[in-house]
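#data-curation
PF: Archiving a pair of folding outputs for the training set. Convention for this channel: one message per protein, sequence first, structure tokens after, nothing in between. First:
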Amino acid sequence: MSYCTSLNGNLPEQFFVALGEVRTLKSLDLSFSGTMNVTLASNLGKAIAFNARKDNSLEYLNLDGGVIQSYYNFNQMFDNMNVCEADHERWYGDSAKVNKMSGKDFEKKYYNNLKNLQLNSTNMASGFDYINWKKGFQPEDPKFVQFLARSKNLTTVQLKSCQLHARDADILFLSLDPTRAHFASNIQVLNLAKNNLQKEGAKTLATVFEKNNILQVLDISHNKLGVAGAIYLANAL
């Protein structure tokens, strides 16, 4: 389904409902086929969750070419990967019954069986301010951190040409630190090529790479690291 102009922006809700319950589909390629707005990104997240909740087969998702558009839209997709029984009833049962539900029926749980996610050429710049975040009282992890750190089946993440800057290295630091609470990451292949992490980002990443022995393949080429940045990484790996 890649390179189908304007396809993604016109996908009906029924497509996502079907995606959530299809049993045999392992790979879905929506790359370079137009963008998804917040509603569609949210529906995609819900479909991913229900596919996993029903023990179905979706493992590979290609969203290259700005399908999700932005970091904000990705967060909406992630939010909707947390689903409850009431959500399931809305999509697969009788929506009228939802009004009669209560309590545990609305308790959401995170579901995601993806092994490979491609977001190349998507604007994933977060603008994350680590210093101010750390000052907060029991600060909640950014959603992208939650996604990367708590998706236990995810082994490959492609973030080439995603407009990542030094601040975004802090997001990756939090995501890949195995000493943090709730860490379940199994990311073994990480592509960060053609971003703008620079030497400051390399220094941040080097700190976490010293602790993480899960990552096996890293592409951080074309990031304006300079000699200092390269040395930071070389000493850590």
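PF: Second:
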Amino acid sequence: MPENEDIRCVASPYASSSTEGITTPVLSAGMKHLILERLEKEIVCKLSSGSICYRRRRVPGKGQSGKKRRRESQSIAEAAKAMETAESVVRSRFIVGINQCTRMLESVFKHRNEGQQQNAGLPLLILLARDVRPASIIAHISIYARLLNIPILILPGKASVELGKAVGIRSVAAAAFLSSPGEYTTVATSVSVEQEWKDTQTDVDSFIKYVISKIPK
């Protein structure tokens, strides 16, 4: 199937009368590279374990006065706390892997069927790699997304490897972005830590909005 054609997101054995014919347009190769670049620079770079944007911080020098050294140590500790806060936000709102996405979608679907309200952790966007084989291993994700009215973005080409590279692992077949809890609930050690939390939430929301706007109609 040419890259510019729609991908059939419903594969047998998942096809049924209620889901037959679900299709999702595939993103262009050029736009895929732009989105993956933004993902890496704006979202993944906040994960210190990914080492993509990690920078070793300078340790206070021995020649400094005790007072100056204490001030710098406090500054470094505060910066480290801000980095931890940003990372925790990203990890709570960005999940990768078929199993993780499936568990999340099953939980949301169960809560909805039982009439339970879920305010945080709701899926806002799902990314799927088009080169996953067999396609049936991600077909259920497409069905859940359609039933829950969640936008899907299909990445063309060798997307599983490229998406994996962007997030710092070997390959990724599926990923999802979740909603924010809405309020900063942890007692902040400083204003800068709380501001980092707000800024990171804004960065994630901005990225989600950007990607959704690029989904082919």
